Amino acid sequence: MYILANLFVLFLFQSRTAAQNCSVMACSSSSIPVRFPFRLEDRWQPESCGYPGFNLSCDDLGRTIMRLPYSGEFFVREINFPVQQIQLYDPGDCLPKRLLQLNLSDSPFSTTYYENFTFLDCPVNLTSRYSAIGCLSNSTRTVLASSDESFVKSMATVCSIIVSRPIPISWPIQYDQGPPDFLNQDLQLSWFTPDCIDCEMEGGVCGFASNSSQNIGCFRIPAKDGVKIFVVAPGS
To answer: In terms of Cα–Cα distance, which of 231, 86, 112, 230 is closest to 167?
Structure first.
């Protein structure tokens, strides 16, 4: 019993120390908090504070950036740690264009739902129940996108097909609720490794068991310590 008690105390001490080695970080006072499995690529945070493939960075305006290997940079709007989802948006404010070229290969992220969308090149004065994609349209053409095959067929005489391809969406489409607007929403991605859902639900924080280990541990930080967020100054 004495040995077990000592091991329990030692575990708590090691857990507290390991958790404190990797502070919660942020790019600015108004930015999202960044913690394991993510890390900011900054000299203040060692590589052991993040899981491979989860590196983030900051721009000069204090916005948080994620770089996907084959799809470029996105701004991070939110990270939902308990459900392991990250919400991204396009720095150029044209997410539909980015989705056409989205490739999640060699990244730890995936999307739960895909829907086949057809992008249409239509006359500029066309009236449709689908809103034009402003950033892809211009003074001579209107670009629409729909996953409704019957609608696409009905437009065949006035529009030409640009491309049809699977597009990641946040949840299954319910056509009885009207035309969906997924293309103008944020890109929502999930990760499954490391799996920290149970740890998060129990109020813990995931991290490597040690600086030299790839094993994941669940650490508990005493409530009296609170949560400290360190802001990384741009360019530092």
So the answer is: 112
| 206 occurs within a structural domain | yes
Please give the structure tokens belonging to residue 155. Answer: 């437009």
Asked if 166 and 103 touch (Cβ cutoff 8 Å), the reply is no
Domain count, the chain: 1
What does the angle CA 60 – CA 205 – CA 190 come to, to the nearest 5 degrees?
A: 65
Which of 209, 205, 201, 210 is CA-nearest to residue 227?
205
C-beta of residue 65 within 8 angstroms of C-beta of residue 78: no
Owner of token pair 């590589």:
47
What are the φ/ψ torsions at residue 83 (nearest 5 degrees)?
Answer: -110, 0
Domain-embedded: residue 127: no
Confidence of residue 64 (pLDDT cuts 50, 70, 90): very high
Residue 5 has pLDDT above 70, yes or no: no
Separation of alpha carbons 21 and 95, rounded Å:
37
pLDDT given at position 10 = 35
pLDDT value at position 232? 44
Does residue 75 lie in a domain region?
no
pLDDT value at residue 231:
46
The Cα 156–Cα 231 span in angstroms is 53
**Per 3-state DSSP, what percentage of the chain is helix, strand, and coil (rounded to 5)?**
20, 30, 50
Distance in Å from the first CA to the final CA of the chain: 50
109 within a domain of the structure (yes/no): no
Largest CA distance in the chain: 82
